[in-house]
Amino acid sequence: MVKKILSSKSPVKILEKSISGGLGPGNLGVFASRKGVGKTACLVQIALNRLIDGQSIIHVSYASRVDYIIAWYEEMFKNLASRENLSRLMEIHDEIIRRRVIMNFRQEGMKTEQVLKGLEALLVQGNFPAKTIIIDGFNFYLPAAGDLQLFKKFALDRQLEFWFSCSLRGNDPLFDQQGLPFVLKDYLDSFDIIFTLENEHDRVKVNLVKDHNQLSLKKLNLELDPQTLLLAKA
Amino acid sequence: MNSTLSNTLSRMRNIGISAHIDSGKTTLTERILYYCKKIHRMHEVKAKEGGGATMDFMELERERGITISSATTNVSWNDHSINIIDTPGHVDFTIEVERSLRVLDGAILVLCSVGGVQSQTLTVDKQLKRYKVPVLAFINKLDRIGANPFKVKEQVVDKLGRQAALMQIPIGLEDKLEGVIDLVSFKAIYFDGPNGETIREEEIPVELLDQARHYREELLDIVSLTSDELAEVILEDKVAPGILHKAIRQATIRREFTPVFIGSAYHNKGVQPLLDGVVNYLPHPGEVENIALDLDRNQLPVALPADPDLPCVAYAFKLEEGPYGQLTYIRIYQGSLKKGDELFNTRSRQKFKVGRLVRMHADHMEDITGAIAGDIIALFGVDFASGDTICSNGLNYTLTSIYVPDPVISLAIEPVDKISSDRMSRALSRFTKEDPTFRTYLDPESRQTIIQGMGELHLDVYIERMKREYRVEVVSGQPQVAYREAITARADFDYVHKKQTGGAGQFARVSGYLEPFEGSYEFINEVKSGHIPREFIPSCDKGFQASLKKGQLIGSPIIGVRVVLTDGQFHPVDSSDLAFQLAAQGAFKQVYKKARPQLLEPIMKVAVETPSEFSGSVFGSLNQRRGIIISSVETGLYSTIEAEVPLSEMFGYSTVLRSMTQGKAEYTMEFLKYARVPQNLADDLMEKHRQQIEEEKK
User: Fold this and answer.
1) Tens digits of per-residue pLDDT, B280-306?
2) Alpha-carbon distance A68 to A106, whole Å?
3) Quick check: A124 contacting B, CB < 8 Å?
4) CB contact (8 A) between residue B634 and residue A122
5) Taking the CB of residue B695, how many other CB atoms lie within 10 A of it?
């Protein structure tokens, strides 16, 4: 029951509706924005939604410490639970921990092959049934076309969905006229879904820039709650 | 305090050396002893012949190449007296580490320049922080392939969350390691002679000047954040070494900064500057605040100034039985102590006379006549338990007791013959005095001796020690996990205990309810208008507590119960203490199943460090053991995998891990929490328990 209530109300579901039902296996999606706007919050919410639905996820981080990522999950879960008035909290919480693995690749210049090898070890030998992989902190400012092709192939072969965060930096403008981040232009083929987060009058709005085969800017009726960073209807 | 004494105090250091296993801690300790001219020949850990390093004086430790006991060794360096407390590295012996930390004023945290911050570094770092110990870091093994002290320093900042900066940078690395550049004096230091005992100071090689300037800037930047005085002179560009020394010392003692030294103990490089660092930057006993609780004043905290003229307060932190009898290591916090003094043990409430006093060196001891506040010495011929506080007559203080976790594993042991049996009880009584996490009792049903501890290795070590030190041969059973039972629902009880057997009868009635409780046990009395006379309320409490010792599921202790007593009845003649105790027990027995009890098992936090190529097998092995994988951190060639695994699944894991990874992986574990046993396994356990009981009946 609890799961159902949460899922039907969840703004994450609204987000997924906006992209024809979701990212889908074999596909790569990305949230792009400047640092500190709310990419990780979005990724963690997608992950939490999957977890509460009873699925498993792997959260890959390139930079942050494990305890820092765990703190993100705890905080977002707490906020979500209090907004949705969840009962049996501890039980759901324990279940979530069971189905989430955080992988951290810390060395600078860690090769994508090595990251995928680590993922494969966990998925195959570790028998961990994740279908959604979160990739936080990947650097798109180094040549990444080859890496993204590897991710894409891995996603297709194993029927996984990958959600990335893309941290934008440098001087304005960061986006072209269609709202597409310049830095992602080289990787358009690899990504099926591109969201951007934009600060507008102190609210963080969610824009859909690429929806599977369609490339056009769509301002969604979603924003991040400034207090909780939860996705909410605008 | 007169000036000679304060002079003595300021020249005293009590330090520990903490590390992850295999960071080279023992080699470092041994080199320190050598340079302090206490031993004449250096030997290596795991030496093929001629014994191991000096600190590991127990044979068993020699064999395993790890350090189990915290021996205290006194050395001199630059007119300073340094007590080195060698802390054990393995998590299974954490209580020993913690007890040692209690008496330290400072510590050297040893890191491997290849492995960097490893799982256990995090554990010992946490302990150092818990006991507020100022720390110097030493990045060891610069000679190893892949050594990168810069990366490891970053990890100290990142992973340990310390404000840290390099005090030195290397001249060459791996097999090209020649020496270090001291960033304070801004000189190159080389270590000449067959054992690196001759220090040669030179100008910094030109090709390293830029790098040295860069890291000196970094050092100044970080330290100046803690010192206005230093910040000012930096602005004026007049940084004299004296000011920098002082700022580093103050910041280190306030635990706002961690100086990072580097070297290779094995290759005799960098040890003497580290010793200078101990003297220069770690506090003397007078600079550390120590608190005791006054038992006469409702445990009011009182400060213990390191003043030798005040009454004596000391703490027994370690017992050891040697060939001449029991040796008790103590740290004096206040006052002084000499032969013939009469002192008082505040736990046992017993007076005793100070007999023989000794100062311990790694392999021999020196008789002394007295010692003052700040010092660590050993006493002969006193009967203490570790953790005892001793005071001059008139004082009744206790030093805050160390947190002692409950044991999670038990093992039945049986001596092979009568002689062994006598010796075994002697051995056990001493081990339990030395180590509060090691316990033992006689199981009244099976008549077997049960030993309990914090892990498989923990118990193994004691069995080995019995064999070696007491020549006791024992047969041991399968290790048993310490299960618990806990209730999950509220249940009401109303129970009458009534007995008429001629003479005086027994009568008592209790009613109320049980409910789940966060802690271990709570008793609440809500009986109104004297339905149970006040003198019988503690009898009820006692009765309930007696019921908690054995649950009905598998006979394990019950935790997490609140008993609320709301009503009852008594008889003016037939009610008694015993009647109410029995009523409470009867009530508990009757209602327990209604409170939906479940089985809990200890869950361990397991950290496996493995070459990344084997991480798949490790994931698989943890998964098979009902483990929850929490995280996997990959740094280059190595992965650290953290998981929560039931203790019952971890037996024999070290063998499995070794064979799976060609001996290249290692793991540590510590108790995390109790969690519910899955239903199918709980059913098995209960079935087994039933069968056992039936068998006993036959």
Assistant:
1) 999 999 888 888 888 888 778 888 888
2) 14
3) yes
4) no
5) 8
Give the closest-approach CA distance of A209 to chain B in angstroms.
33
Rounded to an integer, the average pLDDT of B18-27 is 74
- Taking Cα atoms as reference points, which of A92, A58, A66, A65 lies closest to residue A78? A92
How high is the ipTM of this complex? Answer: 0.89
pLDDT at B3: 44
Write out residues 119-138 of B within 8 Å (CB-CB) of A.
none
Interatomic CA distance for residues A150 and A174, integer angstroms? 26
Give me the pLDDT at residue A82, please. 84
Percent above pLDDT 70 for chain B: 89
**CB-hemisphere CA count at 13 Å for B95?**
25
Q: Say how many residues make up chain A.
A: 234
Q: What is the DSSP pairing of strand B597-611 with strand B484-487?
A: antiparallel
Given A98, A114, A122, which is nearest B632 (Cβ)?
A122
Q: Strands B597-611 and B12-19: what pairing? A: unpaired
Distance, in Å, from the CA atom of B565 to the CA atom of B583, rounded to the nearest integer, reads 12
Provide the pLDDT for residue B404. Answer: 64
Interchain contact, A103 vs B634, CB within 8 Å: yes
Domains of chain A: 2-228 (3.40.50.300)
DSSP per residue, chain A: -HHHHHHHH-HHHHHHHHTTT---TT-EEEEEEETTSSHHHHHHHHHHHHHHTT-EEEEEESSS-HHHHHHHHHHHHHHHHHHHT-SSHHHHHHHHHHTEEEEEE-STT--HHHHHHHHHIIIIIS---EEEEEEES--TTS--HHHHHHHHHHHHHHT-EEEEEEEE-SSSP-B-TTS-BGGGGGGTTT-SEEEEEEEETTEEEEEEEEETTEEEEEEEEEEE-TTT--EEE-
**Mean pLDDT score of chain B:** 84
What secondary structure does DSSP assign to B485-531, as a single string? EEE-S-EEEEEEEEE--SSS-EEEEEEEEEEE-SSSEEEEE---TTS
pLDDT range class, residue B41, cuts 50, 70, 90: very low
Q: Distance between CA atoms of B533 and B540, rounded to whole angstroms?
A: 11
pLDDT in tens, B589-643: 999 999 999 999 999 889 888 888 899 999 999 999 999 999 998 876 788 899 9
Q: Percent of chain A, pLDDT > 70?
A: 95
Chain B residues within an 8 Å CB radius of A110: 634
Helix (H) or strand (E) holding B666: strand B666-676
In angstroms, rounded to a whole number, what is the distance separating the alpha carbons of residues B139 and B153? Answer: 8
A223/chain B closest Cα distance in angstroms: 31
B400 CB contacts (<8 Å, ≥6 apart)?
A: B291, B292, B293
Q: How far is A98 from chain B (nearest CA, A)?
A: 6
Q: Evaluate if residue A58 carries a pLDDT over 90.
A: yes
- The pLDDT tens digits for B634-687 are 876 788 899 999 988 988 888 898 888 887 787 877 788 889 999 999 999 999
Determine the pLDDT at residue B60: 43
pLDDT top residue among A234 and B87: A234
Q: Which of B196-205, B362-371, B418-427 is predicted least confidently? A: B362-371
Q: Which domains does chain B have, with CATH numbers?
A: 3-278 (3.40.50.300), 291-399 (2.40.30.10), 412-480 (3.30.70.870), 489-595 (3.30.230.10), 599-680 (3.30.70.240)
Q: What six digits make up the tokens of A164?
A: 């990335």
Residue reference for tokens 């003052």: B372
Beta bridge mates, A157 = none
- Look at residue B282 in the predicted model and tell me its pLDDT: 94
Q: Which of B612, B629, B631 sits opposite A104 (nearest CB)?
A: B631
8 Å CB contact of B630 and A104: no
For residue B619, the chain A residues in CB contact (below 8 A) are 121-122, 125-128
